[in-house]
Amino acid sequence: MKAGQTLAIIGGTGSGKSTILNLIARLIDPTSGSVNINGIDIRQMSKHDLHEKVALTQQKAVLFSGSLRSNLQFGKSDATDEEMWQALEIAQAADFIREQGGLEMAVEQNGANFSGGQKQRIAIARTLIKETEIYLFDDSFSALDFATDRKLREAINKSEKHHDKIKVIVAQRIATVMSADKILVLENGLAVGLGTHESLAKSCPQYQETMQSQLSDEDLVKMGLSITNSTDKGSPVQ
Amino acid sequence: MMRGNYLNRGGKGADRFQKGRRAENFFPTIIRLFKYMRRDLWGLIFSMVIAGLSVILSVQAPKILGTATTVIFDGVTKSLKNHQAIRIDMAKVESILLYVLVIYLISFVSGVLQQSIMTRISQRTVYTLRREFKNKMKKLPISYYDSHNNGDIMSRMINDMDNISGTLNQTLIQLITSILQFVGTIYFMLTISWQLALVAFITVPLVMITVRIVAPLSQKFFSEQQKNLGLLNDQIEENYSGHTVIKTFNHEAAAEKEFARRNDDFYKSAWKAQFVSTLIYPTMRFINNLDYLAMAVIGGLKVISGSVNLGDVQAMLQYTNQFAQPITNISNMLNTIQATVASAERIFEVLDEKEMTERITDIEKVTDSKKKRTDDRHINSVSNFETAERTDFIHFEQVAFSYNENQTLMTDVNFSVEVGQMVAIVGPTGAGKTTMINLLERFYDVSSGKILLEGKDIRETKREQLRSRMAMVLQETWLFSGTIMDNLRYGRLESTDDEVIQAAKMAHADEFITTLPQGYQTVLNETATNISQGQRQLLTIARAFVANPEILILDEATSSVDTRTERLIQSAMNRLLKGRTSFVVAHRLSTIRDANQILVMDKGNIVETGNHESLLKQEGLYASLYNSQFAK
């Protein structure tokens, strides 16, 4: 991966998507082989230094009791109000935060006073406010509707702070991964495809299958990607 | 002192404590609690009487024993005076000792009897309370559960019930016996010698003062300890659940510092609380010992001067020893009783909650909305109304709803559904999709307007009846611990094994179930983690097949599983939908395309309706939602 690029990882449950992110963040170590950042094996860095370089948003957002400000300060302890609003804005969280009481609003234990989607967006803002090289999103967009999902990804790419950084997005929806520079398709822990949306749609059968299951034939045609061997949708694979 | 094991109090300990466990309506609550014991009234009175009897008898014991000493002493002194061999009236001593033995025996038997009666009464009382509580839970509206956390309800059902049974079991009788013991001791001391009794009474103000000073102090430290423990637990819990965040954001040092601070706070308050609360006993013992000494000296002098018998002094010494105890006990028990009444109040608070109305009565229907409704009928011609009734299976009419009064959500929702139609509900998060389902299932009732099922207001039908016609398949799959067979049969309890298997086949679940070693008898654990997420979904679909409802409510999963299972799920869903009227909170475009009617919701209301093609032409919210997934 080069700086400024976005890598998307797609695959079913248990295919190993989260494992890849956990390897990058060194929450686990590889059994063999190595993960390198700027040519250096991350096991040669201190965990502290590594965690200065990567920011991870988990699938299940965890917020801490305190205030919204204290939660965002997790990402950057000396963040200004302006930076905080900027991050919230990109994470599509600014609107509801503004409505509900701003940066000083209380966050209950486990973020119980927010809905699942709201928690997710606050957690994304916490990741975005961090000054780092690599931003990891572990299925963080699945709780968002298509439109919000798209706005968020667009905002990240437009953001001055983030556009030249590496973004790794794990997702299950085709719509979320389509625009990535590279898409990695996983199945049962193995990489079965790597490329752009267009190339994978032509050559990777697993990717095609995922597309067919999520989109109807007409949608596929609309995307200019008619797949001739598409089976009747609705009939189970025997 | 605090009742119960403080280590048991979880993360919410701090909250619970801050709320205060003081009773607000002390006497009314006590009276109400006693009403639960009405049918055990005679048992209660009986055990109080025998408890009293045994105390009165045993309080006498020192005095009687004293007379035995006096008999021996008199015998010895008389013999010494007359320079004879020592002769004691052993027959008298024997009869006295026998008498005391009988007293102790009676007090033992009555103690056992009393305790067993009280245990029965207290258990029966909380049994009734629990049953009422459970019945009440069934009648509480969903909104109650939305606004109260489970931990709190469970704590009322378990901890508060425990408090009550413990107090009824132990404290109630102890309070009576302590008072009797106190009064009895004073009485017998006075009958022996009022001068010596006065010496004993000096302890009363001293003990009172000690209790007055120490008890509030220890209570203060205890509540501080409890609060700090709650905070500490909260932090530990949070750090464990968020440990990945703490690690990857390099927050370990900060978290450790925070823990050290809270741990220190807890340590400081805990040792103070423990120290002060244990301080009371040595202090009491000290006061008591001083008094004992005074009694021995003064009593001894009196024996020498001949104004008091030796046996009486011995009895006085024994009374002095047991005198301070009832005072300490009573003051401790008052705290326990306070806490118990507070517990009872918390339980009664739930029992007094407003229940949901099962059916609207005719009187309720004739409210302010009546006028509007009759007006409506005049506007719509009568024939029009009848045809609407004939074809519309489900009809929402000017439905308005809000979860709380100061925040309106739904203001005016109108739409009709024909038999067999599939309705897709789409919209951004928070648009009111789930609310629509809540209203249909009558988890909540509309604030105004009405929902008609076959022309009849659903509030006129019993909830059970209404829900028997519907089945829900939610994206959050709920399965209980039990066999797969039991879980599927949950859809309709009287279905046969064959029917269940048939349903599982329809839902493509049979295939994976039969590959499991125990097949349909496989026991699912509580969170059903022993089967995959997709398989869990297939099971909930099969459960809906078993229920075989007229109306189906589906909440499509947002996160997909592996492609193969995904297809199985979709195909099972399509089979399930066939021939039924259905509402689908849809995320998949293929589902939305197939819908007869699409309701596009935003901020609580329906903003667009139509089918896929017509909605795209409108180029409104639907079109933008739809197109956002193709844009790169």
TrEMBL record, chain A:
One of its GO terms (biological process) is oligopeptide export from mitochondrion. It is found in: Cell membrane. InterPro entries: AAA+_ATPase, ABC_transporter-like_ATP-bd, ABC_transporter-like_CS, P-loop_NTPase, Type_1_exporter. Coiled coil: none annotated. It is a multi-pass membrane protein. GO terms for cellular component: plasma membrane. Its main location: membrane. Keywords: ATP-binding, Cell membrane, Membrane, Nucleotide-binding, Transmembrane, Transmembrane helix, Transport. It holds the Pfam family ABC_tran. One of its GO terms (molecular function) is ATP binding. Gene3D superfamilies: P-loop containing nucleotide triphosphate hydrolases. The keyword Disulfide bond does not apply. This is ABC-type multidrug transport system ATPase and permease component.
